[in-house]
Amino acid sequence: MSSSDLSITVRARPERSRNHELGVRAHFSILCSNDLTGVVLIMQVLVVFVRFFVLGLISFGGPAAHIGYFQKEFVDRLKWISVDHYGKLVALSQFLPGPGSSQVGFAIGLERAGLLGGVAAFIGFTLPSFLLMFLLATLGQHFLGMPLYSGVIAGLKLLAVIVVADAVLTMYGAFCQRRLHQCIAFGTAIILLCLPGIEWQVLVLLLAAIMGSIGAHRRNSDKKSPETNDHEAELIQSNTHTVTSKIAMLVFVAGWFGVLFVPEVHSFFTLFADFFHAGSLVFGGGHVVLPLLQETVGDALTPDQFLSGYAAAQAVPGPMFSLATYLGVQLLPSSPLMGALIATLGIFLPGFLLVLVLQNYWLRLSRQSLIAGSVAAINAAVVGLLLTALYDPVFVSAVTSRVDFAVIILGLVLLRLFRFHIIWLVVVALTYGGITQIAFV
Question: Which whole-number Å values give the CA distances from 46 to 69, 112, 126, 326, in the listed order?
Fold first, then answer.
């Protein structure tokens, strides 16, 4: 071997070594990247859980107030989603059976951290009310009459007024910029204040959708379809989401066939089937679920048990569908925890499955001009629904004196003018409720 060959060989060895080292580094970086992706996903899921758990502790006022809390936290403050996209999620929830506000929360968690994020949002937002309803059902309602507890509830109800009022103002500015949408919002509020009831609510939403579609046709006859942001385009084109929606549809259909045709093989299955059936049929939120549940499982419970559960659900934060937790304990006294878990899962599951099935198609449809016009009009009608709920049940159940109204004005000033964080308003509400209750004891 010549010296030149030797020199080439000697020089080549470091090159091969360097290439090998680069390959090892690349392989190691891929492994680290995968690990980091998993860590990031876990952290996102935990953040979703914590955010929704905190809201679940303070979210009094029913579905309308919950929409206000979500809008304030995830749209205005954290900016997880845009106002327009949030409006589309709210509009979808108005036409699906199940717990509307919880479906919106599930959809937010789903888009933030995938399916695990949706589950984390559901568990976080529902866990406080689940635990409280379980304790009330098993240990009795004795502490409901305690002065301090009553004061805390009174203060948090005032907070709900502040949050819903802020949501009405913010969403009005976002969704009611056109004259047509302003008329729809105020018209919805006027009609529903004069004619309360779920049938009128559905009718108003349908009329709003028709008016919005007609208005969009006249306005955009020569324009292209509305643009879709990158986030929505990614969701629409996601194969993972398509597979998930198909699986969710199969589970929903299987659940229905199980409810209708599978014989009653176990008390657990019977309990799940009853609440799954109720959750897949109820429109209009938690207040409407009471008569449907009474019809479904009424033979096994007394009217007093139903009314006690309904009253307890009014006194705790979170979704009204947590009534199922209370009833599950009553229906399965031999295994109260299993009864509460099965009933709660059964009544929430259909609505979440429908979100998984339809959310992707809903976003695709909303790209069309006519559908986009309908969605915009529905969002305006939702503002009217919030305005109606601001009066009843939120304001009516919370404000009992001039001082209460003064506290609401103070809270709105702190929230809108000085941009106080919601946690400080919670402190103010709890302090005011505790002081007033102690002063009258």
Answer: 19, 11, 15, 27
The pLDDT tens digits for 282-313 are 765 665 666 667 667 767 777 767 767 776 78
- Spatial contact of 259 and 276, defined as CB atoms under 8 Å apart: yes
> Cβ–Cβ contacts within 10 Å for residue 402, how many?
8
Cα separations (Å) of 356 from 31, 126, 244, 246, 352? 31, 19, 7, 9, 6
For residue 288, what are its two tokens?
Answer: 């409407």
Q: What is the dihedral of CA 33, 37, 39, 45, to 10 degrees?
A: 170
CB 126 within 8 Å of CB 340: no
Task: Give the single-character DSSP code of 196.
Answer: -
Q: pLDDT for 51-93, tens place per residue?
A: 999 999 988 877 878 998 999 999 999 999 999 899 999 989 8
Long-range contacts of the stretch 213-222 (C-beta < 8 A, 24+) = 213/370, 213/371, 213/373, 213/374, 213/377, 214/373, 215/178, 215/180, 215/373, 215/377, 216/369, 216/370, 216/372, 216/373, 216/374, 216/376, 217/369, 217/370, 217/373, 219/373, 220/369, 220/373
339: Cα separation from own chain's centroid: 24
